[in-house]
Amino acid sequence: MIDFTNANKYIKQVEDTMMKYNIRLEDNNDLIAGIDLGTAYVVLVVLDRKMNPVACEMEFAQVIKDGLVVDFAGARAIVKRLKEKIEEKLGAELTKAAIAVPPGTGERDRNTHRYVVEGAGLEVTSVLDEPTAANSVLNIENGVVVDIGGGTTGLSIFENGRVVYTADEPTGGIHLTLVIAGNYKIRFEEAEELKKRKDRYRDVFPLIVPVVQKMALIIKRHTQDYKVDGIYLVGGTCCMNGIEHIIEKETGIPTRRPYNPLLVTPIGIAMNCR
Questions:
Q1: Cβ pair 247, 144 in contact under 8 A
Q2: Cα 6–chain centre separation
Q3: Are 258 and 136 a contacting pair, CB within 8 Å?
């Protein structure tokens, strides 16, 4: 299995920028950005040309469903707010960004993602699939990178550093939230907050195990024809402690997750902004 020491350190550096204000830049003419339009969160990561972390902002959102834009105006407004917030911090303008979509997304929906970001005032320089973007951070040579977001479980299988297969199926974090909401008979928004509370972890985790098992079956089905030695988890849903143990048990494949899986894909997207 891959040693995540360096990747974890880098992810933590990006995370730390969220607490910094009035950031001074050596060169503000070559900032690169990555925008992850997620089902639960929209995340904007900014790096400099040497790939040093500069800034990161995110906002909870319900403008994407199963990886597809369902509220164009709302998505564009969120991206614009995040862009302006970071520009205020940096005293510099963001002009370009890369984006990513779930594997297998059609051209029409890829273009919709592009139009959202362009509508917020950014030039889109590249469009990636999400697990492949994440691997720019993890550098997996052989194995499967699985991005479990709010709406879907997407994966890319790597052999000798090259993508040989991709897939994406509905089932993600919102399904966990719906189970919690139904069990406690509370609103979706309340269940989402409850899901993230560490002091309620012991109560909540047993409820969502069947959904995680379904995610594991998706992974197992799409990897059964390949020699996969390791599963590497990213995406906001994978922030829940213990999810890796269920997936490893169900698939029989060693499974690991890096520090703060939510940030891995948007960081990787930014790294591919050219």
A1: no
A2: 19
A3: no
Residue type, 115: Y
Beta strand pairing status for 123-129 and 162-170? unpaired
Helix axes 261-271, 130-138, angle to 10 degrees: 90
- What class is the 5-134+264-271 domain? alpha beta
Task: Return all residues near 2 (Cβ < 8 A) that are at least 6 apart.
Answer: 138, 139, 140, 143, 230, 232, 256
Q: What is the rounded distance in angstroms from the CA atom of residue 270 to the CA atom of residue 273?
A: 5
Backbone angles phi, psi at 176, to 5 degrees: -65, -45
Half-sphere exposure of residue 172: CA atoms within 13 angstroms, side-chain side: 29
- As given in the structure block, the two tokens for residue 170 are 């509905």
> How much is the CA Rg of the chain, to the nearest whole Å?
18
Give the whole-angstrom CA distance, residue 79 versus residue 73. 10
Q: Where in the chain is the domain with CATH 3.30.420.40?
A: 5-134+264-271, 139-262
Q: Of how many residues is the chain composed?
A: 274
Rounded to 5 degrees, φ, ψ at 26 are -75, -40
Specify the pLDDT at position 26. 65
State how far the Cα of 76 lies from the Cα of 240, in Å rounded to an integer: 29
Q: What percent of the chain has pLDDT over 70?
A: 97
Check pLDDT > 70 for residue 47: yes
Residue 183 CA to its chain's centroid (Å): 27
> Could you tell me which CATH number the domain at 139-262 has?
3.30.420.40
Model pTM?
Answer: 0.92
List pLDDT tens digits, range 226-235: 999 999 999 9
Lookup: tokens for 86: 């970071």
Cα 206 from Cα 1, distance rounded (Å): 27
